[in-house]
C-alpha cells in the first residue's frame, strides 16, 4: 500500500514538473516583446531592418530557452546584437521581472563576462550555450554542418564588433572562431584569427561573449 502511494506521489510530481516546463516553453515562445526594443536595436545598429530586429528577438527567445534548460547553470551569451536586445529588455524592470518569474521561476541575472569568477567558468558557460543550442537545432556539436541561430546571427546581420563563428575549423577566416572547438571535451577554444593571448572565452579575445545568464 505504502509503495503504491509513493509511486502515485512520484508520478504526480513528475507530471507537474514536466507540465510546468511545458508551460514555460510555451510562454517564452509566445511572449510579445515591447516595440521599444525594436526601436532601440535600430538606434544601436541603424542598418538593421524591421525584419532583422524580429530575427534578433527570435534569437533572444532562443537564448532564454537555453537558460531555461540549463538547470540554473551559467549560459554564456554568444551574440553581441542579442546581448544588446537583452540589455534593453532588462531596463524595462517590471516587465522583465514578470517575464523571468513566468519563464524561469526566478530572476535571470545578467553577468558580464568580465565579472565572472574565473576564465574556466566563462568557458563552461559558452560550451553549455553551444551544446544546448546545437541540441535544439539538431546540429552535431562536434562536427557541425551549420551554426545555431545564436552563433550565426552577428555575422548574418553584419554587426560591428560582433562575434563571428565558423562551423569548420580549417576554413575559419579572419576573426571567425572555430565553433566545433567550443564543444570539445578538453576545453580547447583557440582564436582562429589573431593568435593573441588573453583571458576571453577563447583564450584569444577578451571581448568574446557579451555576458551570461545565471543566479
Strand order of the largest sheet: 1-5-2
**What is the overall number of helices?**
7
| Ends apart, CA distance between termini | 41 Å
Using only C-alpha atoms, the radius of gyration works out to 19 Å
Give the beta-strand count: 5
Name the structural class.
mainly alpha
Helix content: 40-55%
Secondary-structure element series: HHHEHHEHHEEE
Instruction: Give the overall shape.
Output: globular
Mean pLDDT: 79
Percentage beta strand: 5-15%
Q: Summarize the biggest pleated sheet.
A: 3 strands, antiparallel
Provide an overview of this structure.
The protein has 215 residues and is mostly helical. It is 51% helix and 7% strand. The protein is built from 7 helices and 5 strands. It has a 3-stranded antiparallel β-sheet with strand order 1-5-2. A two-stranded parallel sheet has the order 3-4. The chain is globular, with a radius of gyration of 19 Å.
Descriptive key words:
215 residues, 7% strand, three-stranded antiparallel sheet, mainly alpha, two-stranded parallel ribbon, 51% helix, 7 helices
Amino acid at each position: 500500500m505504502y509503495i503504491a502511494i509513493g509511486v502515485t506521489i512520484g508520478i504526480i510530481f513528475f507530471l507537474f514538473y514536466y507540465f510546468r516546463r511545458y508551460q514555460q516553453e510555451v510562454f517564452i515562445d509566445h511572449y510579445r516583446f515591447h516595440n521599444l526594443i525594436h526601436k532601440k536595436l535600430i538606434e544601436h545598429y541603424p542598418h538593421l531592418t524591421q525584419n532583422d530586429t524580429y530575427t534578433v528577438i527570435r534569437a533572444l527567445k532562443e537564448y532564454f530557452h537555453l537558460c531555461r534548460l540549463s538547470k540554473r547553470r551559467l549560459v554564456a551569451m554568444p551574440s553581441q546584437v542579442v546581448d544588446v536586445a537583452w540589455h534593453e529588455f532588462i531596463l524595462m524592470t517590471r516587465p522583465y521581472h514578470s517575464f523571468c518569474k513566468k519563464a524561469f521561476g526566478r530572476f535571470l541575472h545578467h553577468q558580464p563576462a568580465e565579472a565572472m569568477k574565473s576564465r574556466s567558468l566563462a568557458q563552461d558557460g559558452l560550451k553549455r550555450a553551444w551544446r544546448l543550442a546545437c541540441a535544439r537545432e539538431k546540429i552535431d556539436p562536434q562536427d557541425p554542418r551549420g551554426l545555431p541561430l545564436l552563433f550565426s546571427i552577428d555575422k548574418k546581420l553584419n554587426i560591428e564588433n560582433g562575434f563571428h563563428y565558423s562551423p569548420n575549423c580549417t576554413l575559419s577566416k579572419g576573426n571567425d572562431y572555430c565553433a566545433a572547438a567550443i564543444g570539445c571535451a578538453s576545453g580547447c577554444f583557440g582564436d582562429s584569427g589573431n593568435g593573441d593571448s588573453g583571458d576571453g572565452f577563447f583564450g584569444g579575445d577578451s571581448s568574446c561573449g557579451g555576458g551570461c545568464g545565471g543566479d
